[in-house]
Amino acid sequence: MPEFVRRIPDGDDRERLVCGTCGYVAYENPKVVVGSVVAAGTSVLMCRRAIEPRRGFWTLPAGYLELGETIEEGARREAREEACAEIALDGILAIFSLSRIGQVQIIFHARFAGPASMPSFGAGAESLEVDLFSWEKIPWNEIAFPSVQLSLNEWRRLGAAPLGMPAQNPALDPRGTTKPDAASPEGPL
Amino acid sequence: MPEFVRRIPDGDDRERLVCGTCGYVAYENPKVVVGSVVAAGTSVLMCRRAIEPRRGFWTLPAGYLELGETIEEGARREAREEACAEIALDGILAIFSLSRIGQVQIIFHARFAGPASMPSFGAGAESLEVDLFSWEKIPWNEIAFPSVQLSLNEWRRLGAAPLGMPAQNPALDPRGTTKPDAASPEGPL
Prior knowledge:
The structure is a homodimer of 189-residue chains. With 189 residues, chain A is of the alpha+beta class. The first copy, chain A, has a domain of 128 residues: Alpha-Beta Complex (Nucleoside Triphosphate Pyrophosphohydrolase), CATH 3.90.79.10. Helices cover 14% and strands 33% of the residues of chain A. In chain A, strand 5 and strand 6 form a beta hairpin.
């Protein structure tokens, strides 16, 4: 049985999860999600999720940054795990704060590490299938999360221009608090 | 007594902190630190730390992002808490991965929210003193952390140019694994 209670530790100013037995404070902070828009020519790599939430919907290779990793290492690991793809990162495309769910998402602009003419990928354990899509063929009605759509939009908007300031939260949802409608996940964050 | 043990939960691929009694998995992931180089004209705002680590040394207003905040909100809160300053953010100046200590630091380029000619600030609870320094007067020998120096360097390098791609880890320490020497903290991350 968990012994944790919510209280304000001495010297702190907000409630934390504190072990009622030993006083250990399990700080809960936002987590970092790292992911990539991986392009091969004018097509992008997408993964159909094999796990909840949003099983069966399409996403970018992305996931939680782990201890001991740089953000680049985490993004490359996620592409390897979810899409069996070795990727090279060009830079940061977007940074989203999803304050509603305690996430900071860092999305890279990326390409395949090998020759672009022969992109190598496949479905990892958390993916039902993985494929390259031209812009028009992207399964827009089956996108897993709003930030996937936002990242793709930013990738498209950028085109061949050099990377500059990363895109951030959309004007419609500056705090990342809007709960997306499952029926139209292309809404705010 | 903490009941947590380190083991690999079912379906996972790395050790987690798991409650030996109830199986609760306390995922430990890197934490996000948000901070700012706050400029008033050609001077920057710095805080002398009242707490460990590096008590007595100078840092930027920065700290852990909390649940429910955007990265911008967190950076503004830290400036308020540590330097009693209301600030306005221009954009992201730098992003550092400190994989050695499980941090992702997001540093903003910022200014005082009020008139630049009358910057308002003071020592918050975690600061011994807070002051504005021209570049030459920055206490270079008493800087708390390498990333403070790197952020200041990047701010100086940028000058009046528009913000572009955020600076990232220095070439000397691409993974953020080098342990700084307490005697010369201006080294790698």
